[in-house]
Amino acid sequence: MTRPLLTIILLAGSVGGAVHGADFQAGVARMVITPQSPIWLSGFASRNHVSEGVAQDLWAKALVFDDGRGGRVVMVTMDLIGLPREISDEVASRVLPKHGLKRSQLILLASHTHSGPLVYPNLAIIFDGNDEERQVCERYARKLVDDLVSVVDAAFADLAPAKISTGHGSAGFSVNRRALTPEGRWAGFGENPDGPVDYDVPVIRIAAPDGKVRAVVFGYACHCVVMGSRSYTINGDYAGFAQFELEKALPDATAMFVQLCAGDQNPRRRESTLENAATYGKELADAVQKSLDGKLRPVHAPIRTTYESISLDFAPYSRVGFEEEFKEGKVYERRRAERMLATYDGGGPPRQLSYPIQVVRWGSDLTLIALGGEVVVDYALCLKREFPQEDLIVAAYANDVMCYIPTVRILREGGYEAEGNMTIYGQPGPLAETVEKTMLDACRKLLRETARTSP
Protein backbone atom coordinates (compact mmCIF):
# COMPACT_ATOMS: atom_id res chain seq x y z
CA MET A 1 0.00 0.00 0.00
CA THR A 2 1.40 3.39 -1.00
CA ARG A 3 1.18 5.98 1.75
CA PRO A 4 1.06 9.74 1.12
CA LEU A 5 4.20 11.34 2.44
CA LEU A 6 2.51 14.65 3.06
CA THR A 7 -1.10 15.75 3.15
CA ILE A 8 -1.88 19.43 3.44
CA ILE A 9 -5.42 20.53 4.10
CA LEU A 10 -5.92 23.66 2.02
CA LEU A 11 -8.70 26.16 2.40
CA ALA A 12 -9.58 28.89 -0.08
CA GLY A 13 -9.48 32.41 1.29
CA SER A 14 -7.27 35.40 1.80
CA VAL A 15 -4.19 34.62 3.87
CA GLY A 16 -3.39 38.16 4.81
CA GLY A 17 -6.67 40.02 5.09
CA ALA A 18 -9.16 39.94 7.92
CA VAL A 19 -12.46 38.19 7.32
CA HIS A 20 -15.65 39.04 9.21
CA GLY A 21 -16.17 36.55 12.01
CA ALA A 22 -12.59 35.23 12.01
CA ASP A 23 -10.37 36.20 14.92
CA PHE A 24 -7.41 34.10 13.79
CA GLN A 25 -5.41 32.74 10.93
CA ALA A 26 -4.84 29.00 11.22
CA GLY A 27 -2.86 26.51 9.18
CA VAL A 28 -3.07 22.73 9.34
CA ALA A 29 -0.85 19.97 7.94
CA ARG A 30 -0.17 16.31 8.52
CA MET A 31 2.49 13.84 7.51
CA VAL A 32 2.95 10.08 7.79
CA ILE A 33 5.87 9.18 10.08
CA THR A 34 5.43 5.40 10.04
CA PRO A 35 8.81 3.61 9.97
CA GLN A 36 9.43 2.17 6.53
CA SER A 37 11.21 -0.95 7.79
CA PRO A 38 11.05 -3.18 10.89
CA ILE A 39 12.19 -1.29 13.98
CA TRP A 40 12.37 -1.72 17.74
CA LEU A 41 9.20 -0.56 19.44
CA SER A 42 9.29 1.41 22.68
CA GLY A 43 7.45 1.52 25.96
CA PHE A 44 7.71 -2.07 27.17
CA ALA A 45 11.01 -3.41 28.46
CA SER A 46 9.98 -7.02 27.87
CA ARG A 47 10.00 -6.80 24.06
CA ASN A 48 12.89 -8.67 22.47
CA HIS A 49 12.74 -8.14 18.71
CA VAL A 50 11.75 -5.65 16.02
CA SER A 51 8.25 -4.76 14.83
CA GLU A 52 6.10 -7.11 12.78
CA GLY A 53 4.06 -5.09 10.33
CA VAL A 54 1.89 -1.99 10.37
CA ALA A 55 -1.74 -2.04 11.47
CA GLN A 56 -2.16 1.73 11.33
CA ASP A 57 -0.04 4.59 10.08
CA LEU A 58 1.57 6.96 12.56
CA TRP A 59 1.20 10.68 11.95
CA ALA A 60 2.79 14.00 12.79
CA LYS A 61 0.28 16.85 12.61
CA ALA A 62 0.89 20.58 12.90
CA LEU A 63 -1.50 23.41 13.68
CA VAL A 64 -0.49 27.09 13.51
CA PHE A 65 -2.50 29.79 15.28
CA ASP A 66 -1.89 33.47 14.43
CA ASP A 67 -3.95 36.21 16.09
CA GLY A 68 -2.86 38.97 13.69
CA ARG A 69 -1.43 40.97 16.60
CA GLY A 70 1.94 39.28 16.88
CA GLY A 71 0.68 36.38 18.95
CA ARG A 72 1.32 32.96 17.44
CA VAL A 73 1.70 29.36 18.53
CA VAL A 74 2.49 26.13 16.69
CA MET A 75 1.15 22.87 18.09
CA VAL A 76 2.68 19.62 16.78
CA THR A 77 1.21 16.25 17.78
CA MET A 78 2.84 12.89 17.10
CA ASP A 79 1.83 9.23 17.39
CA LEU A 80 5.04 8.46 19.27
CA ILE A 81 6.20 7.33 22.73
CA GLY A 82 7.83 10.71 23.38
CA LEU A 83 10.58 13.03 22.21
CA PRO A 84 13.94 13.29 23.95
CA ARG A 85 15.31 16.77 24.50
CA GLU A 86 17.93 16.19 21.79
CA ILE A 87 15.23 15.95 19.11
CA SER A 88 12.92 18.68 20.38
CA ASP A 89 15.86 21.09 20.66
CA GLU A 90 16.99 20.29 17.11
CA VAL A 91 13.49 20.80 15.72
CA ALA A 92 13.20 24.10 17.58
CA SER A 93 16.61 25.29 16.35
CA ARG A 94 15.42 24.86 12.75
CA VAL A 95 11.79 25.95 13.05
CA LEU A 96 12.13 29.05 15.23
CA PRO A 97 14.41 31.21 13.05
CA LYS A 98 12.68 30.11 9.85
CA HIS A 99 9.27 31.31 11.04
CA GLY A 100 10.28 34.05 13.45
CA LEU A 101 9.08 32.21 16.52
CA LYS A 102 10.11 32.24 20.16
CA ARG A 103 10.62 28.94 21.99
CA SER A 104 7.37 29.51 23.86
CA GLN A 105 5.50 29.46 20.54
CA LEU A 106 6.32 25.86 19.60
CA ILE A 107 4.77 22.90 21.45
CA LEU A 108 5.83 19.34 20.62
CA LEU A 109 3.33 16.79 21.99
CA ALA A 110 3.59 12.98 21.93
CA SER A 111 0.61 10.63 22.26
CA HIS A 112 2.76 8.13 24.19
CA THR A 113 1.70 5.14 22.13
CA HIS A 114 3.54 1.98 23.19
CA SER A 115 3.07 0.58 19.70
CA GLY A 116 5.40 3.03 18.00
CA PRO A 117 9.15 3.10 17.34
CA LEU A 118 11.92 3.73 19.81
CA VAL A 119 12.75 7.42 19.32
CA TYR A 120 16.48 7.25 19.95
CA PRO A 121 17.91 8.01 22.50
CA ASN A 122 14.64 8.11 24.50
CA LEU A 123 14.42 4.96 26.67
CA ALA A 124 17.59 3.60 25.06
CA ILE A 125 18.39 1.61 28.22
CA ILE A 126 15.66 -0.92 27.36
CA PHE A 127 16.97 -1.36 23.79
CA ASP A 128 18.33 -4.90 23.38
CA GLY A 129 19.00 -4.96 19.64
CA ASN A 130 22.23 -5.30 17.70
CA ASP A 131 24.26 -2.51 16.09
CA GLU A 132 22.36 -2.67 12.81
CA GLU A 133 19.02 -2.40 14.61
CA ARG A 134 20.33 0.52 16.63
CA GLN A 135 21.32 2.26 13.41
CA VAL A 136 17.76 1.83 12.13
CA CYS A 137 16.51 3.65 15.24
CA GLU A 138 19.10 6.39 14.86
CA ARG A 139 18.19 6.90 11.18
CA TYR A 140 14.52 7.10 12.10
CA ALA A 141 15.28 9.78 14.70
CA ARG A 142 17.25 11.84 12.16
CA LYS A 143 14.48 11.60 9.59
CA LEU A 144 11.91 12.46 12.24
CA VAL A 145 13.57 15.83 12.78
CA ASP A 146 13.30 16.58 9.05
CA ASP A 147 9.67 15.40 9.00
CA LEU A 148 8.64 17.56 11.95
CA VAL A 149 10.25 20.63 10.39
CA SER A 150 8.49 19.86 7.10
CA VAL A 151 5.05 19.47 8.64
CA VAL A 152 5.41 22.81 10.45
CA ASP A 153 6.46 24.46 7.17
CA ALA A 154 3.38 22.99 5.49
CA ALA A 155 1.08 24.29 8.22
CA PHE A 156 2.45 27.81 7.79
CA ALA A 157 1.82 27.52 4.05
CA ASP A 158 -1.83 26.70 4.84
CA LEU A 159 -2.64 29.82 6.88
CA ALA A 160 -6.19 31.04 6.28
CA PRO A 161 -8.89 32.82 8.31
CA ALA A 162 -10.28 30.70 11.11
CA LYS A 163 -12.63 30.71 14.08
CA ILE A 164 -11.76 28.79 17.25
CA SER A 165 -14.15 27.39 19.80
CA THR A 166 -13.84 25.03 22.71
CA GLY A 167 -15.81 22.62 24.85
CA HIS A 168 -15.51 19.50 26.98
CA GLY A 169 -16.68 15.92 26.87
CA SER A 170 -16.14 12.91 29.08
CA ALA A 171 -14.89 9.34 28.58
CA GLY A 172 -14.76 6.76 31.35
CA PHE A 173 -12.37 4.02 30.23
CA SER A 174 -9.33 5.31 32.13
CA VAL A 175 -8.52 3.95 35.58
CA ASN A 176 -5.86 4.66 38.19
CA ARG A 177 -3.35 1.84 37.78
CA ARG A 178 -1.57 2.09 41.15
CA ALA A 179 -2.81 -0.82 43.26
CA LEU A 180 -1.97 -0.29 46.94
CA THR A 181 -1.51 -2.51 49.97
CA PRO A 182 -3.74 -2.02 53.05
CA GLU A 183 -0.86 0.01 54.48
CA GLY A 184 -0.96 2.39 51.52
CA ARG A 185 2.17 1.19 49.75
CA TRP A 186 2.48 0.39 46.05
CA ALA A 187 1.44 -3.21 45.33
CA GLY A 188 1.94 -3.25 41.55
CA PHE A 189 0.03 -2.37 38.41
CA GLY A 190 -3.68 -3.01 38.65
CA GLU A 191 -6.92 -1.07 38.98
CA ASN A 192 -7.37 1.23 41.95
CA PRO A 193 -11.04 2.29 42.05
CA ASP A 194 -10.26 4.76 44.83
CA GLY A 195 -7.32 6.37 43.05
CA PRO A 196 -7.57 9.77 41.34
CA VAL A 197 -8.67 9.87 37.68
CA ASP A 198 -9.59 12.57 35.18
CA TYR A 199 -12.33 11.70 32.67
CA ASP A 200 -12.31 15.16 31.07
CA VAL A 201 -12.05 15.34 27.26
CA PRO A 202 -11.13 18.93 26.30
CA VAL A 203 -11.92 19.82 22.69
CA ILE A 204 -10.73 22.68 20.46
CA ARG A 205 -12.53 23.22 17.14
CA ILE A 206 -10.83 25.13 14.32
CA ALA A 207 -13.21 26.13 11.53
CA ALA A 208 -13.33 28.34 8.47
CA PRO A 209 -15.48 31.49 8.70
CA ASP A 210 -18.26 29.58 6.92
CA GLY A 211 -18.24 26.94 9.68
CA LYS A 212 -16.42 24.17 7.81
CA VAL A 213 -14.30 22.25 10.34
CA ARG A 214 -10.61 22.23 9.49
CA ALA A 215 -9.11 20.70 12.62
CA VAL A 216 -10.13 19.24 15.96
CA VAL A 217 -7.72 19.06 18.91
CA PHE A 218 -8.76 16.81 21.78
CA GLY A 219 -7.15 15.32 24.86
CA TYR A 220 -7.49 12.54 27.40
CA ALA A 221 -5.48 11.27 30.36
CA CYS A 222 -4.79 7.59 29.71
CA HIS A 223 -1.72 5.57 28.75
CA CYS A 224 -1.78 4.27 25.16
CA VAL A 225 -1.16 0.65 26.23
CA VAL A 226 -4.27 -1.25 25.12
CA MET A 227 -2.16 -3.39 22.80
CA GLY A 228 0.16 -4.60 25.56
CA SER A 229 3.76 -5.78 25.57
CA ARG A 230 3.20 -8.86 23.42
CA SER A 231 2.16 -6.81 20.42
CA TYR A 232 4.83 -6.03 17.84
CA THR A 233 2.50 -4.32 15.36
CA ILE A 234 2.90 -0.60 14.69
CA ASN A 235 -0.21 1.46 15.47
CA GLY A 236 -1.36 4.52 17.41
CA ASP A 237 -3.26 2.49 20.04
CA TYR A 238 -6.62 3.93 21.17
CA ALA A 239 -5.49 7.52 20.41
CA GLY A 240 -4.70 6.60 16.81
CA PHE A 241 -8.09 4.96 16.39
CA ALA A 242 -9.86 7.96 17.94
CA GLN A 243 -8.21 10.27 15.41
CA PHE A 244 -9.14 7.88 12.59
CA GLU A 245 -12.80 7.83 13.68
CA LEU A 246 -13.01 11.62 13.84
CA GLU A 247 -11.39 12.09 10.45
CA LYS A 248 -13.82 9.54 9.01
CA ALA A 249 -16.73 11.56 10.42
CA LEU A 250 -15.15 14.88 9.40
CA PRO A 251 -13.31 14.04 6.16
CA ASP A 252 -12.11 17.61 5.56
CA ALA A 253 -10.62 17.95 9.05
CA THR A 254 -7.45 16.87 10.78
CA ALA A 255 -7.86 15.32 14.23
CA MET A 256 -5.03 15.88 16.71
CA PHE A 257 -4.68 14.00 19.99
CA VAL A 258 -3.03 15.53 23.07
CA GLN A 259 -2.03 13.20 25.90
CA LEU A 260 -2.91 14.72 29.27
CA CYS A 261 -1.49 13.84 32.71
CA ALA A 262 -1.62 10.06 32.29
CA GLY A 263 1.42 8.98 34.29
CA ASP A 264 -0.64 6.74 36.58
CA GLN A 265 -3.64 6.20 34.28
CA ASN A 266 -4.27 3.05 32.19
CA PRO A 267 -7.20 1.80 30.11
CA ARG A 268 -9.54 -0.51 31.96
CA ARG A 269 -8.36 -4.07 31.45
CA ARG A 270 -9.35 -5.77 28.24
CA GLU A 271 -7.70 -8.29 25.98
CA SER A 272 -4.81 -6.73 24.06
CA THR A 273 -6.30 -6.65 20.56
CA LEU A 274 -6.67 -4.10 17.80
CA GLU A 275 -10.42 -4.51 18.13
CA ASN A 276 -10.30 -3.36 21.75
CA ALA A 277 -7.97 -0.46 20.92
CA ALA A 278 -10.49 0.54 18.26
CA THR A 279 -13.36 0.21 20.77
CA TYR A 280 -11.71 2.60 23.22
CA GLY A 281 -10.79 4.91 20.34
CA LYS A 282 -14.42 4.97 19.21
CA GLU A 283 -15.56 5.75 22.75
CA LEU A 284 -13.19 8.69 22.90
CA ALA A 285 -14.14 9.90 19.41
CA ASP A 286 -17.82 9.73 20.34
CA ALA A 287 -17.14 11.92 23.38
CA VAL A 288 -15.40 14.47 21.15
CA GLN A 289 -18.19 14.37 18.58
CA LYS A 290 -20.81 14.89 21.28
CA SER A 291 -18.94 18.00 22.38
CA LEU A 292 -18.69 19.25 18.79
CA ASP A 293 -22.42 18.73 18.33
CA GLY A 294 -23.17 20.66 21.50
CA LYS A 295 -22.69 24.29 22.43
CA LEU A 296 -19.05 25.35 22.08
CA ARG A 297 -17.67 28.60 23.47
CA PRO A 298 -15.83 30.97 21.12
CA VAL A 299 -12.12 31.57 21.73
CA HIS A 300 -10.71 35.03 21.15
CA ALA A 301 -7.37 36.78 20.69
CA PRO A 302 -4.77 37.60 21.81
CA ILE A 303 -2.47 34.60 22.05
CA ARG A 304 0.06 34.80 24.89
CA THR A 305 2.81 32.26 25.44
CA THR A 306 5.61 31.60 27.89
CA TYR A 307 8.18 28.83 28.36
CA GLU A 308 10.59 28.10 31.17
CA SER A 309 13.05 25.34 31.93
CA ILE A 310 13.04 24.77 35.68
CA SER A 311 15.21 22.52 37.87
CA LEU A 312 13.83 19.57 39.81
CA ASP A 313 16.04 18.16 42.56
CA PHE A 314 16.94 14.48 42.74
CA ALA A 315 16.87 12.75 46.11
CA PRO A 316 20.39 12.21 47.53
CA TYR A 317 22.45 9.37 46.08
CA SER A 318 26.08 8.22 46.14
CA ARG A 319 28.68 6.59 43.95
CA VAL A 320 28.77 3.58 46.29
CA GLY A 321 25.14 2.81 45.50
CA PHE A 322 25.85 2.70 41.77
CA GLU A 323 28.95 0.56 42.26
CA GLU A 324 26.82 -1.99 44.12
CA GLU A 325 24.09 -1.77 41.47
CA PHE A 326 26.63 -2.36 38.71
CA LYS A 327 27.84 -5.55 40.40
CA GLU A 328 24.55 -6.99 41.63
CA GLY A 329 21.70 -5.31 39.78
CA LYS A 330 19.50 -6.56 36.98
CA VAL A 331 20.38 -5.80 33.38
CA TYR A 332 18.75 -2.34 33.18
CA GLU A 333 20.03 -1.43 36.63
CA ARG A 334 23.56 -2.32 35.54
CA ARG A 335 23.18 -0.21 32.42
CA ARG A 336 21.95 2.74 34.45
CA ALA A 337 24.76 2.26 36.98
CA GLU A 338 27.37 2.15 34.21
CA ARG A 339 26.01 5.42 32.84
CA MET A 340 26.05 7.07 36.26
CA LEU A 341 29.56 5.88 37.08
CA ALA A 342 30.74 7.36 33.80
CA THR A 343 29.29 10.71 34.85
CA TYR A 344 31.23 10.51 38.13
CA ASP A 345 34.41 9.92 36.12
CA GLY A 346 33.54 12.74 33.75
CA GLY A 347 33.09 15.52 36.27
CA GLY A 348 30.08 14.69 38.37
CA PRO A 349 26.54 13.33 37.98
CA PRO A 350 23.43 15.52 37.76
CA ARG A 351 21.85 16.60 41.02
CA GLN A 352 18.96 18.32 39.24
CA LEU A 353 16.71 17.56 36.30
CA SER A 354 16.15 20.21 33.64
CA TYR A 355 12.40 20.33 33.08
CA PRO A 356 10.30 22.29 30.52
CA ILE A 357 7.00 24.00 31.33
CA GLN A 358 5.00 25.95 28.75
CA VAL A 359 1.79 27.97 28.93
CA VAL A 360 -0.37 29.17 26.04
CA ARG A 361 -3.33 31.43 26.65
CA TRP A 362 -5.98 32.36 24.10
CA GLY A 363 -7.50 35.60 25.43
CA SER A 364 -9.38 34.88 28.63
CA ASP A 365 -11.13 31.88 27.08
CA LEU A 366 -8.68 28.97 27.04
CA THR A 367 -5.34 28.11 28.63
CA LEU A 368 -3.01 25.19 27.89
CA ILE A 369 -0.25 24.12 30.27
CA ALA A 370 2.23 21.79 28.52
CA LEU A 371 4.40 19.77 30.89
CA GLY A 372 7.35 17.54 30.08
CA GLY A 373 7.64 13.94 31.17
CA GLU A 374 5.10 11.40 32.37
CA VAL A 375 3.12 13.56 34.76
CA VAL A 376 0.72 11.87 37.20
CA VAL A 377 -2.90 12.97 37.18
CA ASP A 378 -2.75 14.71 40.59
CA TYR A 379 -1.11 17.77 39.00
CA ALA A 380 -3.94 18.35 36.52
CA LEU A 381 -6.61 17.86 39.17
CA CYS A 382 -4.85 20.20 41.57
CA LEU A 383 -4.38 22.99 39.02
CA LYS A 384 -7.96 22.76 37.80
CA ARG A 385 -9.20 22.97 41.39
CA GLU A 386 -6.94 25.91 42.15
CA PHE A 387 -7.88 27.86 39.00
CA PRO A 388 -11.60 27.18 38.52
CA GLN A 389 -12.00 30.44 36.61
CA GLU A 390 -9.70 29.11 33.87
CA ASP A 391 -10.76 26.78 31.07
CA LEU A 392 -7.59 24.82 31.68
CA ILE A 393 -6.04 21.98 29.68
CA VAL A 394 -3.06 20.37 31.41
CA ALA A 395 -1.07 18.32 28.91
CA ALA A 396 1.97 16.14 29.55
CA TYR A 397 4.56 14.36 27.33
CA ALA A 398 5.45 17.79 25.91
CA ASN A 399 8.83 18.84 24.52
CA ASP A 400 10.85 16.27 26.49
CA VAL A 401 9.89 12.91 28.00
CA MET A 402 12.69 12.18 30.46
CA CYS A 403 10.97 10.31 33.33
CA TYR A 404 7.83 10.23 35.45
CA ILE A 405 6.88 13.27 37.51
CA PRO A 406 5.32 12.06 40.79
CA THR A 407 3.75 13.92 43.68
CA VAL A 408 4.85 13.67 47.31
CA ARG A 409 2.07 11.14 47.95
CA ILE A 410 3.30 8.86 45.19
CA LEU A 411 6.93 9.20 46.27
CA ARG A 412 5.94 8.05 49.75
CA GLU A 413 3.81 5.18 48.41
CA GLY A 414 6.78 4.05 46.30
CA GLY A 415 6.63 1.89 43.22
CA TYR A 416 7.16 2.32 39.53
CA GLU A 417 6.04 5.93 39.04
CA ALA A 418 8.10 6.97 42.06
CA GLU A 419 11.31 4.98 41.60
CA GLY A 420 11.31 2.09 39.14
CA ASN A 421 10.90 4.20 36.01
CA MET A 422 14.06 6.16 36.78
CA THR A 423 16.18 3.12 36.00
CA ILE A 424 14.85 2.61 32.47
CA TYR A 425 14.95 6.35 31.82
CA GLY A 426 18.61 6.41 32.86
CA GLN A 427 18.09 8.90 35.66
CA PRO A 428 20.15 8.65 38.88
CA GLY A 429 17.22 7.97 41.16
CA PRO A 430 13.91 9.28 42.45
CA LEU A 431 13.13 12.96 42.56
CA ALA A 432 13.18 14.77 45.89
CA GLU A 433 9.92 15.51 47.70
CA THR A 434 10.35 19.16 46.71
CA VAL A 435 9.17 18.21 43.21
CA GLU A 436 5.48 18.88 43.86
CA LYS A 437 5.93 22.38 45.27
CA THR A 438 8.49 23.29 42.61
CA MET A 439 6.19 22.13 39.82
CA LEU A 440 3.07 23.83 41.10
CA ASP A 441 4.86 27.07 41.95
CA ALA A 442 6.28 27.22 38.42
CA CYS A 443 2.86 26.59 36.86
CA ARG A 444 1.30 29.32 39.01
CA LYS A 445 4.05 31.76 38.02
CA LEU A 446 3.65 31.13 34.28
CA LEU A 447 -0.14 31.35 34.51
CA ARG A 448 0.22 34.76 36.14
CA GLU A 449 2.73 35.89 33.52
CA THR A 450 0.48 35.02 30.58
CA ALA A 451 -2.52 36.62 32.26
CA ARG A 452 -0.87 40.02 32.39
CA THR A 453 1.66 40.19 29.55
CA SER A 454 1.20 41.25 25.95
CA PRO A 455 1.73 38.76 23.10
Any overview of this molecule?
By secondary structure, the chain is of the alpha+beta class. It has two domains: 7-300 and 355-402, no CATH class; 315-349, no CATH class. It is 31% helix and 25% strand. It is built from ten helices and 20 strands. Strands 1, 2, 3, 4, 5, 6, 10, 11, 12 and 14 form a ten-stranded mixed β-sheet that branches. Strands 15-16-17-19 form a four-stranded mixed β-sheet, covered by helices on one side. The chain has a two-stranded antiparallel sheet with strand order 7-13. β8 and β9 (186-189) form a beta hairpin. α3 (237-249) packs across α4 (274-293). The chain is globular and about 65 Å long. The protein starts with 6 loop residues before the first strand and ends with a helix.
Summarize it.
The protein contains 10 helices and 20 strands. It is α+β, with helices and mostly antiparallel strands and 455 residues long.
- Annotation field: number of helices: 10
Name the overall outline. globular
Structural class: alpha+beta
Helix content: 25-40%
Amino-to-carboxy terminus distance: 45 Å
Fraction of residues in β-strands? 25-35%
Poorly predicted sequence stretches spanning 5 or more consecutive residues: 1-21
List keywords for this structure.
alpha+beta; disordered N terminus; 25% strand; ten-stranded mixed beta sheet; 10 helices; 455 residues
Annotate the secondary structure layout.
Elements: E1 7-8, E2 24-32, E3 59-66, E4 72-78, H1 85-99, E5 106-110, H2 131-157, E6 160-170, E7 174-176, E8 178-180, E9 186-189, E10 200-207, E11 213-220, H3 237-249, E12 254-259, E13 265-267, H4 274-293, E14 297-299, E15 303-313, H5 319-328, H6 331-345, E16 352-362, E17 366-371, E18 374-375, H7 377-386, E19 392-395, E20 404-405, H8 408-413, H9 416-424, H10 435-452
Parallel strand pairs: 4-5, 11-12, 17-19, 18-20
Antiparallel strand pairs: 1-2, 2-3, 2-6, 3-4, 6-10, 6-14, 7-13, 8-9, 10-11, 15-16, 16-17
Helix pairs in contact: 1-2, 3-4, 5-6
